[in-house]
């Protein structure tokens, strides 16, 4: 995907949308000093160009019974396209996995997993992940405490 040219006003809009996703167009326009119609046109352009990928609510995992978070590093036994495709397709079916990243280094993938508890994690690991064809090694780390979690992108790095 090609990078989109963003000016300072676009960046200010994106900061506001990331922090105040439920703001009305009028509120958003006031926060970035635009007319509501100009603000709406910019937001629509950012959506059309794929800069704004979507909207959604952030849920508190523990409040809905997902009390255990783990990061699981996975090494595949084979690295051919068929083996990779098979693993990627399996990951898509596992609700416990909220993120999966292909990595450089000694492990091939990093999974972010949310489960109810250690028993649920054990079921996920034994019944799904270790049964997936092509998984050679798994290394899990459980989150004890989250020190920082801000899901918005660091737009200040793009300052113009």
TrEMBL record:
Keywords: DNA-binding, Transcription, Transcription regulation. GO terms for biological process: regulation of DNA-templated transcription; response to amino acid. One of its GO terms (cellular component) is cytosol. PROSITE patterns: HTH_ASNC_1, HTH_ASNC_2. GO terms for molecular function: sequence-specific DNA binding. Residues 6-67 form the HTH asnC-type domain. This is AsnC family transcriptional regulator. It comes from Stenotrophomonas terrae. The lineage of its organism: Bacteria, Pseudomonadati, Pseudomonadota, Gammaproteobacteria, Lysobacterales.
